[in-house]
Amino acid sequence: MGISTLTSYKCAQIFEAVGLSIEVMERCFAGMPSRVEGATFEALAGDALQLHSLGFPTREYPPNSVESVSLPNPGDYQWRKGGELRSDCYLHVVSGTPLNILIGGQIFYKLCVAAVANWSNMGRVN
Question: Which residue ranges does the record assign to the Glutamate synthase central-N domain (predicted)?
Fold first, then answer.
């Protein structure tokens, strides 16, 4: 199916929700399938309030201090000069060869082993 915009999904319901509780699904997304439970209204509200408090803190900071002019960095994303070596670099090699699966499992197995063995030589991900 792939990724698309919300407007293209309107009324089609050809996707599945993941990570929302049954209560949220029944109230906000009636009829949509969901096999994985998750966040409740309380959890969603807590997240929203926490994010709001980061942008609009109740504590006063000194004028022109770092805290007063920037949001905290939780460290989830960080730029690294030259990229970062990752163990999933080989996935595009494996997923980009569906014909080998049809030809035979032996060829596909050899391709996977070669890709995993050589992933560190494939370069860095930027």
Answer: 1-21
